[in-house]
Amino acid sequence: MSHFNTSVQQDGINGMKELLVKYPKQKEINLGLLLSKLSELAAARESSVRKCALKLLEQIIQSTAQDKISPFFPLLNAQLMCSMNHIALDIQKDSHLLLDLLLLHAPNLVSAVTMQVFIYYLQFFV
Length: 126
What we know:
The chain is mainly α. Helix content is 79%, strand content 0%.
């Protein structure tokens, strides 16, 4: 997934999705690594890679209890903040997709950093 080629990155994400369907216990075992790599790809240069990564990230977060995600939430939040402040405008605009995903599936975790996120978005729209 960390290859420079867009199609190879997407193939890696789709392959990971297939592996997680076939071996669901691996999701819990490798949760930190999965969340780290996929949240990193949420700020990828190519829009297609970002969207593909966010789809898998959503599936993982949706099917995982919030208490298992909470140790990794600071990482997800940091990636969200980086995406919001990215130099590329399209990545900034797509950062709301990561926020939407987190608000839908981990609202209790996001509520702890509401003001931080709100301030970043105010800066984006002003």
